[in-house]
Amino acid sequence: MNGYTLFLAVTDRTGRPRPAYALTTFAVETRRLDEAEERAGAALADLPPGADWTGLAPSVRREVVDRVRTVPHYAVDHTEHDRAPERSASPLADCLRSLAAGGPLAGIAAAPRTVYVTGGLPVGDAESAPLLADARAVHPDAEAHFPALARLTALLATAAAPSADNAVPDDEDLYDAFDRYALGGLA
User: Fold this and answer.
1) What is the pLDDT of residue 1?
2) CB under 8 Å to 55, separation ≥6 — which residues?
3) Which candidate, 92, 56, 81, 4, places its Cα nearest to that of 174?
4) pLDDT at 21 over 80
5) Is 161 helix (H, G, I), strand (E, B) or coil?
6) Which residues of 75-111 are buried (b: 16+ CB within 10 A; e: fewer)?
7) What's the burial of 71, exposed, middle or buried (CB within 10 Å: 0-12/13-18/19+)?
8) For the segment 33-56, what is each residue's pLDDT rounded down to a tens digit?
9) What are phi and psi of 139, to 5 degrees?
10) CA dihedral 43, 123, 99, 128 (to 10 degrees)
11) What is the strand order of the sheet 113-118 is part of?
12) Any idea what DSSP says for residue 122?
């Protein structure tokens, strides 16, 4: 059985009218992890540190989309959580349950996997949620292990909102670089 490596970018968006969290997940077959890291590094080499997708010029976005197409991946998913607090004890756990139950990552929910978290937010009470609870290992410091893939996942997190809103043309949509992806919410 083949294993997978998942990169999670957790984004706290509690500044919105309703508390909201987002979880962006980039999955790679573990056997292709070194290749994916190398290609992600090359694809993002010209971007400034901490680049935000909406802050990049359209020509730069098109170039990055073209380069990112070479990064081996299994699937990409972005889930927004904006349920009312009384409906959810753990927004991050809800997102993880959703990923394990549906979308492009459901097919690997039972496969061996290692998880790397980026974004600086702790997983807290979500550590017992699917995709984390039975992972081989969960590393809270993706940047220290696979900086290019952590950076790509963080960039995907900033590209999700305009992609979901169809606010960027297809050739500037970073999610369009992937064969299997989903953008959704848990309202």
Assistant:
1) 44
2) none
3) 56
4) no
5) helix
6) bbbbbbbbbeeeebebbbbbbbbbbbeebbbbebbee
7) buried
8) 999 999 999 999 999 988 999 999
9) -110, 120
10) 140
11) 137-139, 113-118, 4-12, 21-29, 75-81, 181-185
12) -
pLDDT of 150: 95
Task: Look at the block and give the residue holding tokens 């900033």.
Answer: 158
42 three-state secondary structure:
helix
- Give residue 78's identity as a one-letter amino acid code: H
The residue among 146, 179, 12 whose CA lies nearest residue 81 is 12
- Bridge partners, residue 12, by sequence: 21
pLDDT at 24: 92
What is the Cα–Cα distance from 47 to 18, expressed in whole angstroms? 32
Question: Which residue, chain included where needed, has tokens 């909102």?
Answer: 161
Question: CA 33, 13, 187 angle in degrees (round to 5)?
Answer: 90
Long-range contacts of 123-126 (CB under 8 A, 24+ apart): 123/10, 123/92, 124/90, 124/92, 125/89, 125/90, 125/92, 125/93, 126/90, 126/92, 126/93, 126/96
Tell whether the model's pLDDT for residue 19 goes beyond 60.
Answer: no
Amino acid in the structure at residue 90: S
**First CA to last CA across the chain, in angstroms?**
35
